[in-house]
């Protein structure tokens, strides 16, 4: 089985699992650092591996535009190109097409748009997007979906949701047909093909979310993602959607909450049975000089730290915390030195990955809720 | 002895030596990566150490302004502050005061100036500058000197040169007196005190250079630096000064050519008996996407490399060359990803340090001139 449910926490719906993909196994719940353009911003693959990253996320839309598929195919795929031999999940870029690209036009057939950086016109069918991700050599492939903004009128959300289901069906067919027709270079062993997840859309409407989940389950996917969250909705609405959809999804499949989130978000959603997360927050905040620590967020530039020789987080043993003080990091940010954003990005990724490690340990010991409470109590102490 | 001459090359004036300072031994000829603001730009101390850096250079002027001396003193000195436990040479900042600072006014007593970033007024005597570097905990201290631009009228160069000698004398006295009067926390063991170098100025005038060198030798310093080069003069003039001054300096003392240079410069000057170098070129070029390789400089953004899967330098075994292709690095620069400038900076520093390693090996084998010829023949092949 590509997904194995190892243990169900007795104090919550949180679950411990293992997901096997072509480039290795992933212990869940897991956090996937985001490497949109084929690099997790400011970090090297070696640093990611040393930080305990099991899988990273990249983005088909961005890589299709730059450096282009030919460049990556000829490198032997994205893993070789970026020198990362562990699993990669690629997002289809649906979200980017709907947020970054210019002059987009959606039809049932697909989406036309202009590149956000050079204005060139492109047209993607759902089949194209699968093919792109196969060219990248992705371990986990996401189908093209239609994303809506928050708030979104129900009729519009419904159209997008239905189109997302239709596109998901065509994506599965495309993967299947390519698998049989063009599969000469790929192995028929299911453990070594890419996995395809279905994406549940439906904005904040429970009935739309329910319909979408049910249809996708009928079609059948290797895992299920909850899309259309972290698009500006209030936190409690985000938690409600995650919990509501999570309940509808099959126990035996991995569940992925897309684009989420803060440490609090991760704990909340893991408690509803979510297995996978990705978010730009740890690296983006890192570049801006905000560190996540066991006692809350810390703004490195704060004058309070000018002579504070403690590490960012005294309970952390990442490279940054083992070697550098808040005073030094503050100096690096004040003088706009690259090492500053490197170190805080590194710390934040380490913090996120350690958090998930602790979540897994807590589930194994049937004490997820106690762990969550304890973590949040410390985390909010100085928040 | 703090400087030991190990071997004199039989084919040139190049020499192999060992310099012992408080934080360790340095094999010479050596290159010192530049960490002006307490960080070698874009690199971590771990990466520097893995690249074979034996000593780095930092800058008293910059660190005095930001983060300020108190911050570094309370950290236990610059080594602790930046987490670098190998030797550090600090430049006095004379060059920066004369190139960066605003409204400077020089008198025999010292120099007044306004900070280049916040406009605050400061006044430095030569004694102050020694005291600052002692507070930093520097292994090798440089006296305040008066730097002139190129070209410079002879009378002006002479005034600056004489002032430089006077300031050097006062710097030595300041170090000596502090050593005896305030030296309670420092050991009287000469191997564990900071070294003080004299800086030979005199612009492009041989007679001024000669006078300066002779006076400084009379005063007596732990080593001698050649300043006022790499200030815009033609390459052959730079080589002439280096060679001319190098000949005047005592055999038994280390010789440091400040702010130099390109790989060609380093070889040329090492052949005249220079032992130490520093330059921002490898990191500055690295950030701009120019790599130094065994077959010449390479512009990473060049469209030629869009599908070139060779490493930057196939004969290099740095982390960048072992793991990444030119095509990937080009992609990182095109998409303005920080990892790109990190990797090319890392490669360039590694390349420089390896070059010096090869220089030392060639001297040991009495084949410096053959090595130099061979290196330049490859280096200029595609230049």
Helices and strands in order, then pairings?
The structure is a homodimer of 383-residue chains.
Chain A: E1 3-8, E2 15-21, E3 24-28, E4 30-33, H1 45-50, E5 56-59, H2 60-65, H3 69-74, H4 78-82, E6 88-91, H5 94-99, E7 102-106, E8 111-114, E9 121-124, H6 126-136, E10 140-141, H7 154-181, E11 195-200, H8 206-219, E12 223-226, H9 235-248, E13 255-257, H10 263-270, E14 276-279, H11 281-288, E15 290-293, E16 296-299, H12 319-323, H13 326-334, H14 338-364, H15 368-379
Parallel strand pairs in A: 4-14, 5-6, 6-10, 10-11, 11-12, 12-13, 13-14
Antiparallel strand pairs in A: 1-2, 2-3, 7-8, 8-9, 15-16
Helix pairs in contact in A: 6-7, 7-8, 8-9, 10-14, 11-14, 13-14, 14-15
Helix content of chain A: 40-55%
Query: Could you tell me how far the N terminus lies from the C terminus of chain A, measured between alpha carbons in angstroms?
Result: 42 Å
Number of helices of chain A: 15
Q: What does the radius of gyration of chain A come to?
A: 21 Å
**Biggest contact:** A-B, 38 and 38 residues
Instruction: Please report the total strand number of chain A as a whole number.
Output: 16
- If you average the pLDDT of chain A, what whole number results? 94
Q: Specify the biggest β-sheet of chain A.
A: 8 strands, parallel
Shape descriptor of chain A reads globular
Oligomer: homodimer
Q: In terms of per-residue confidence, which ranges of chain A show pLDDT below 50 for 5 or more consecutive residues?
A: 179-191
């Amino acid at each position: 089985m590509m997904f194995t449910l190892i243990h169900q926490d007795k104090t919550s719906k949180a679950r411990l699992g293992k997901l096997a993909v072509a480039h290795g196994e992933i212990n869940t719940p897991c956090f996937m650092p985001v490497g949109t353009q084929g690099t997790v911003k400011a970090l090297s693959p070696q640093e990611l591996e040393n930080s305990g990253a099991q899988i990273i996320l990249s983005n088909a839309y961005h890589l299709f535009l730059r450096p282009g598929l030919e460049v990556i195919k000829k490198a032997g795929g994205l893993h070789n190109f970026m020198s990362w031999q562990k699993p990669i999940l690629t997002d289809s870029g649906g979200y980017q097409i709907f947020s970054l690209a210019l002059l987009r036009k959606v039809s049932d057939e697909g989406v036309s748009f202009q590149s956000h950086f050079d204005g060139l016109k492109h047209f993607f069918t759902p089949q194209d997007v699968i093919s792109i991700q196969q060219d990248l050599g992705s371990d986990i492939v996401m189908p093209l979906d239609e994303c809506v903004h928050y708030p979104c009128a129900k009729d519009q959300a419904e159209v997008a949701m239905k189109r997302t289901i239709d596109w998901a069906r065509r994506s599965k067919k495309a993967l299947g047909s390519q698998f049989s027709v063009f599969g000469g270079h790929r192995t028929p062993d299911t453990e070594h093909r890419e996995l395809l997840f279905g994406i549940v859309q439906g904005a904040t409407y429970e009935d739309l979310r329910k319909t979408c989940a049910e249809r996708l389950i009928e079609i059948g996917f290797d895992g299920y993602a909850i899309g259309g969250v972290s698009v500006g909705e209030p936190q409690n609405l985000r938690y409600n959607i995650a919990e509501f959809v999570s309940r509808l999804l099959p126990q035996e499949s991995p569940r992925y909450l897309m684009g989420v989130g803060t440490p609090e978000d991760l704990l909340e959603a893991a408690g509803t049975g979510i297995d996978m997360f990705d978010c730009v927050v740890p690296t983006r905040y890192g570049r801006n000089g905000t560190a996540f620590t066991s006692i809350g967020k810390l703004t490195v530039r704060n004058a309070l730290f000018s002579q504070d020789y403690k590490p960012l987080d005294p309970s952390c043993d990442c490279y940054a915390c083992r070697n550098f003080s808040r005073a030094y990091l503050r100096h690096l940010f004040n003088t706009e030195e690259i090492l500053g954003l490197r170190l805080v990005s590194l710390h934040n990724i380490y913090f996120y990955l350690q958090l998930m490690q602790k979540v897994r340990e807590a589930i194994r010991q049937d004490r997820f809720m106690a762990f969550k409470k304890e973590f949040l109590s410390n985390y909010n102490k100085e928040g």
